[in-house]
Amino acid sequence: MDSYLSENFGDVKAKNSSEEALQRWRKACWLVKNHKRRFRFTANLSKRFEAEAIRRSNQEKFRVAVLVSQAALQFIHGLNLSTEYTVPEEVKTAGFEICADELGSIVEGRDVKKLKIHGGVEGIINKLNTSVDDGISTSEYLLNQRKEIYGVNKFIESPPRGFWVFVWEALQDTTLMILAVCALISLVVGIVMEGWPKGAQDGIGIVASILLVVFVTATSDYRQSLQFKDLDKEKKKITVQVTRNGCRQKLSIYDLLPGDIVHLNIGDQVPADGLFVSGFSVLINESSLTGESEPVNVSELNPFLLSGTKVQDGSCKMLVTTVGMRTQWGKLMATLSEGGDDETPLQVKLNGVATIIGKIGLFFAVVTFSVLVQGLLSRKLREGSQWTWSGDDAMEIVEFFAIAVTIVVVAVPEGLPLAVTLSLAFAMKKMMNDKALVRHLAACETMGSATTICSDKTGTLTTNHMTVVKAYICGKIKEVNSSKASSDFSSDIHDSALAILLESIFKNTGGEVVKNKDEKIEILGSPTETALLEFGLSLGGDFLKERQRSKLVKVEPFNSIKKRMGVVLQLPDGSFRAHCKGASEIILAACDKVVDSSGEVIPLNEDSINHLNDMIETFAGEALRTLCLAYMDIHDEFSVGTPIPARGYTCIGIVGIKDPVRPGVRESVAICRSAGIAVRMVTGDNINTAKAIARECGILTDGIAIEGPEFREKSEEELLDIIPKIQVHTCHLFDFVMARSSPMDKHTLVKHLRTTFQEVVSVTGDGTNDAPALHEADIGLAMGIAGTEVAKESADVIILDDNFSTIVTVAKWGRSVYINIQKFVQFQLTVNVVALIVNFSSACLTGNAPLTAVQLLWVNMIMDTLGALALATEPPNDELMKRPPVGRKGNFISNVMWRNILGQSMYQFVVIWFLQTRGKATFHLHGPDSDMILNTLIFNSFVFCQVFNEISSRDMERINVFEGILKNYVFVAVLTCTVVFQIIIVEFLGTYANTSPLSLKQWFGSVLFGVLGMPIAAALKMIPVGSV
């Protein structure tokens, strides 16, 4: 079966599947009872084609707009532009001087001419009644006025579907429709032949069963939809830094209004259409909107920023002009939201399993119907009444047809692929509580197969709460882990050296010191920037005064490729000065001078370079993150277009930043080792810092530590020689640490592990440059706190607390999902096999089927919706992390499952066959009702076999299946409901379900047959079959 599934349904991957593969498996699933339900949680390919058409249209539109704006710029300065725009009355009344449509046409059309007519960016700011420094007012009345005139920053979504929609979809099941027709015929013929109410009993029984199946199915599906709705809300919680009422604050992108001043940094998503106000080195990636991969430079000359695009480099202030459905991104997202998530590999595989079993079931149903009809014809031939047909004969044929259709209902396991969705929805909801937000369904199940985790250091293995604890400045090394120590240190430093140090800290930064809404000082920025700014303040520095002292001319923001940040300042005397900071050894290599103990600048010689390198290694050996600060005076003129100098700097000093290891990381790494998952640290930090942290975490013992530059220089052959040493082996996990790595080093490592060595790789990332590795990995894990929007969008799972222990929890839940679905498949296939063989063999050998249509519908509900609820929602246990991972090549239906399915099916078939042949004698059944009682006994024993098999299926390999059973309330509730309904059906609904009340002895016998299945299941688990 696995080879058939791989051949026909194996092309769909956990991520980045081709459209052809998605189309191919849909065509292979021709036997589907309910298209609406089966394909509800799969991608809507037609909507995706529609979204792609919008992208192509945008690409052409923006290409034309750029050409037009470039042409306009050449002539615009020499023209006298006339203002033809008339402000609508309602806009004037609200206190604004430009309407939403005019604003939209300026930015979306990149209309330079219109922008000039309105007075440029400054004119638009005035017309929107806002301020660059203070932003818009937070008065509720004024905010509502803006919303009325310009709209809100939300796109139209399809309305949530109510419960009755799911009921209607459940009714679309073809086999249930056919059964409803059979029920109608049975009602009509029965009432004509036997009158009301006796003649209507069979028909009413089938109708009631259909309605029960429909409502239970609809309830389950509706609950799933609510879970997904809650998760969608969490995915959309995106915040940006905004200035309102003169205060910087975090605001949801859905609360943005035209006039807002938004602060954008590298990795942010542009939250609305807007105009560039001020900033440095801004590169915008517009591929999500236009398909163009080449980044666009945004500046005063090209100030247009489009919603949905990404900040690839630089930082800026943006004026929001257009929001919501007036933007192209809003229109695109409205279409994309209906496109849905890609289906997961397990969903596709189980669709394949359902198709195979459905074909077998259809064959058995046709043969069963043929045999039953042939039996009726044979009897009539013997009686010589083949030419006279009564209503009873017609009723019998309708009953035969209903049985055949019900065999198809039972045989086509529509619930198999939906059980995946149920299990994933349950897991995703629980993982949300465990601080992991799953963005793509497939990530849940793929994480269960993970063999390698490539983890960042900062913020994942460490707390990301950074403080400067040591500094080496002016030849002096000091502990600065308290305000008193910092104050003492500042008094030991020469005034000129302190001044240049504070200038470097406060001017060469991506952070800010601002007042929040409560008028309290707040430091904004990355943890590293925050630590440096705190250090600067503790030295007695004043952020605002320092910022006003000189003018920023150029900024090159930090990124993980350059591993440095640089700025150029224009000093009050008109001269220029450059500052840079970054990876200590990289900045030190760019220096040829140093500030000495008297504050004088002296040349660097070999001894002083060695001394500084020793300081770096000493700091790094103490697991401190080291940064070097440097400056240089530029004696020539400097323009914005000139690159910041790369060499010739004066070293100010080195700071050591403490970022403690998170509590519980060492234990989590040990859990990964016992689970057969290799943990590798890939960091941009100094190699000695990386090794010290890796040893503290338990990642590095005797393994390999390598720097990025050395890794990059390796040839393909050398990489193939190194990487096997860091593979997962059953006997040992080799340690691996990569320091000073670039994002492409991480991408290269991931690609080799996945393709060459067939590992299932999960990767953590937080920066914009991590996007390629997150995209390449089987499971991309973005950091929720430190991560940029670009990283989050490229990821499959967002770790909301940035904690490595949460990644281990995700792996545990992934394994739980995979095994839960295996357990459900094992249980359902057992029921399928037994129900098919029992009805088929009985029809062939005795001429009648012991399980009626109503009974089979009840069995179908036990194994389908209720079985999925019980087994697919089992929470994870610690034992899951003590077994090896499935990996990339593991078979979904394993030898263990086949052993349990075949063994349990054989036992149940023997029980049913024994009852059919020896049941009357064993239970002393005599009289006219003996056949009815025997069939009830068979039905009851069959159901209790499933009840106890469900308990045995809680664990496919362990004999003790009762451990933790009472903690799983869903499982207990499902079993209780099943038993209670079974008692009601047998004892009170016999008229409609074709059952007869049973004696205490008969009940005991039925339950005993079910209970005996448990020791049989335990004995089967002792038969070794291998795990493949």
What can you see in these coordinates?
This protein is an alpha+beta fold and 1028 residues long. Strands 10, 11, 14, 15, 16, 17, 18, 19 and 20 form a 9-stranded mixed beta sheet that branches. A hairpin with a 5-residue loop joins β17 and β18 (601-603). α4 packs antiparallel against α14 (328-336), α32 (804-846) packs parallel to α34 (895-922) and α34 runs antiparallel to α35 (930-952). It starts with a helix and ends in a 7-residue tail after the last helix.
Which features would summarize this protein structure in a list?
alpha+beta, 1028 residues, nine-stranded mixed sheet, 14% strand, elongated, eight-stranded mixed sheet
Helical run tally? 38
Estimate the mean pLDDT confidence: 81
Structural class: alpha+beta
Looking at the structure, what is the overall shape? elongated
Largest sheet descriptor: 9 strands, mixed
* Span of the ends, CA to CA: 13 Å
The Rg value, from CA coordinates, equals 35 Å
Fraction in helix: 40-55%
Beta content = 5-15%
E-strand count? 26
Oligomer: single chain
The stretches of 5 or more residues where confidence is low (pLDDT under 50) are 76-81, 726-734
